[in-house]
Amino acid sequence: MRENKVRWGVIGCAGIAIRSVIPGIQQSATGTVAAIASRGPDKARETAERLNIPKAYGSYEELLADPEIDAVYIPLPNHLHKEWTIRAAEAGKHVLCEKPAAIDAAEAEEMAEACRRAGVTFAEAFMYRYHPRYAAIKAVIRSGEIGEIRTIHGAFTFNNAKDADNVRYKQWMGGGSIYDVGVYPISAARFILEREPEAAAVHAFFSPEHDHVDMMASGLLEFAGGVALTFDCGMWAAGRNTLEIVGTEGRIEVPSAYVVHENAQDHFYVVTGGEKREVEVPYVNQYSLQADAFGRNVLHGEPMPFGPSDAVNNMRAVDACLTSARERRRVELNL
Fold first, then answer.
1. CA–CA gap between residue 5 and residue 7 (Å, rounded)
2. Domain boundaries 6-126, corresponding CATH code
3. Residue 151 in contact with residue 230, Cβ under 8 Å?
C-alpha cells in the first residue's frame, strides 16, 4: 500500500467499470486506480488515458503480475468471474467481483474458498447496500413504524433488446435478466429480512431472438413466517428500479432502489395512517462507499459488511430462481 491507500487494478474495460466503479474508486478516501487491463493493449491504453489511470496492460495476466497492485475489480462477463477471481487470489490480490458473483453457488463457493486459502478479501459488488438510505430504511423498520413486514416487492427492468450482440444475451456467457438485474431485488429482500429464502417459483420469457436467455422474469421467493418477495426483472421492458416494503401498519417506497444518478433524488417514502412522508437522504456516490468499505477492510482489518458467505447465499437463491423458471416448478432451497 502507498499513502495508506489500496492500489486497485481493473480487469476489463466494461461499461459499468468505466461509468461508475472506476470513478467511484477514484473519488474514494481509501483507494486509487493504479492500472487497467484489457485483452489487447489499444483498448487498455485508450481507457487509461481517458480515465487518468497510470498503467495499461494488454492482458489480464500482466496486471496480476504487477506487485504494486493490491486489489482487483472484476467486471468481466459472468462466465469469467470464477477463473479470474481464483487467478487473482493466487496472485495475492484482494477481489471485488461484479454481480452476479458467479454462474452458480458451487462456483461462488470455489471462489470464496480460493480467496480464503490465499488470505485475501473477496466480496460481490452490490453497491446499493452501502448507501446510507438503507440504514435509514432498516431503522424505520426496527422502530415498528410500519409494523411487521408482510411482503416485499422489487422491480428492475430496462429495454436494451435491440443490442443483439450484448453479452447479456449470450447463454454461454451467463446472460439473462435474473443474472443481470433480478439479483438486485433478490439481494435486497435477503438484506432487509436478514434471513435466507426457503423456496422459489419463477415464470420467465426466454427469447429465441436472444439466444433463449430470460429476457423477462416474474418471481416469488418464500421466507419463513409467511413473508415473501415478489419481483420482476427484465431487459426487454419499460425501465423501473423500485422497491416496496409492506408492513401491517404501513409501507416504505424506494423510487430509485438500486441505481441512483447524481441528478436523481435518493429519497424514500414512509406511508402510514393514510399519510405519506418523504425521508430525504443527501446524494452520495455509493460506488465510493463500497470502495471505502473494501478499503478499510484491506487497510485496517475492518470487517466487510457483506462477505463471501453472502455472495454464496445470494447465488443459491439465484440458482433456485433459474431452475424454477427453466423447469416450470417450485424449487425448495436446501437451508
1. 6
2. 3.40.50.720
3. yes
CB 38 within 8 A of CB 48: no
- Name the phi and psi angles at 53, rounded to 5: -100, 130
pLDDT of residue 265: 65
CB distance 112 to 216 below 8 Å: no
Residue 6 above 90 pLDDT? yes
Torsion angle of C-alpha atoms 319, 321, 325, 331, degrees rounded to 10: 90
Entry pTM: 0.96
**Alpha-carbon radius of gyration of the chain:** 20
Using one digit for the tens of pLDDT, what is the confidence trace for 229-273?
A: 999 999 999 999 999 999 999 999 999 999 987 666 679 999 999
- Please give the CATH architecture assigned to the domain spanning 129-287+315-332: 2-Layer Sandwich (3.30)
Spans of all domains in the chain: 6-126, 129-287+315-332
Neighbouring C-beta atoms of residue 303, cutoff 10 Å = 9
State pLDDT tens for residues 127-183: 999 999 999 999 999 999 999 999 999 999 999 999 989 999 999 999 999 999 999
Q: What pLDDT, on a 0 to 100 scale, did the predictor assign at position 264?
A: 63
| Phi and psi, residue 57, nearest 5° | -120, 145
Say how far apart CA 107 and CA 315 lie, in whole Å. Answer: 9
| Residue keyed to cell 426496527 | 142
Which of the 8 DSSP states describes residue 283? Answer: -
2 forms bridges with which residues in the sheet? 5
Active site residues: 99
- Contact of 102 with 179, CB cutoff 8 Å: no
Q: What is the 3-state secondary structure (H, E, C) of 196-230?
A: CCCEEEEEEEECHHHCCCEEEEEEEEECHHHCEEE
Please, is 138 exposed, middle or buried when counting C-beta atoms within 10 Å of its C-beta (0-12, 13-18, 19+)? middle
What are the cell numbers at 317?
Answer: 437463491
